[in-house]
Amino acid sequence: MKQKGALFTTKALANLSLLTALSIILSRVLGISVPIAGYTALKINFSAVPLILSGICWGPAAGFMSGAVADVVGYMLNPAGGAYFPGFTLSTALCGFIPGVIFRCLRSNKKAYNFKFLNAILAILLIAGAVAIFIYHGQHMNNGLISPKHRLLYGYTAVLGGLALAYMFLLFFPKAKGKDIHSLYSLDKIFFAVVLSQITTSLILNTWFLSIIFSKGFLFFLPARILNTLFMIPVYTLIIHALLKREIIKNL
């Protein structure tokens, strides 16, 4: 599937509107809010999938526009009890913009890149960082998410170990068939785009914005959010790869 034509054609705008509306529904209607120590600081949903698809298929400008509109319009329809914060609009816009930039660069360079090794390094760093953060909380926080004697520390570490195995399976076990390894939409390229997008937006920017809003330290919210991000990255990757591989959105 090739990148669509001009961004501001009637068809392109209609398709982007559809994906933006889908993102709003997934976020504001079907999303699940999970409190962290009494603060509504974590939302589990699939709203990033349509935004990433917008960026991949129509370019960074389309991804940025879809994300920004989705956050602003979504807030107007369902503010979820909180005040509007422009930082979240920026991070939502970047969610579609970053994959758009990556795939635009891949399209402009005809060389066949394999991101498996780089993805493995990113996955190891994420898992190692998550373990280090949980250990830090276990040693330094008495009233936070994990206390020094709290056995949940071992449970979280076990979950992270399971996620590490899942990442390694996702990165190395699937054998590409036919032209998939050389395809623009191969699993390793999509994973790379999703990882950079989610680390930048969900893990770094949104956690920072939450620390500003609730006047809490960055590390206060980070353990639960990094666990959620680690879980959602492979889920997003598999969904987007399946949609692009089967060209489900080809005729949008």
UniProtKB/TrEMBL annotation:
Keywords: Membrane, Transmembrane, Transmembrane helix. One of its GO terms (cellular component) is membrane. Gene3D superfamilies: 1.10.1760.20. InterPro entries: ECF_S_folate_fam, ECF_trnsprt_substrate-spec. The chain crosses the membrane at residues 12-39, 51-77, 83-105, 117-137, 152-170, 190-214, 226-244. This is Folate transporter FolT.
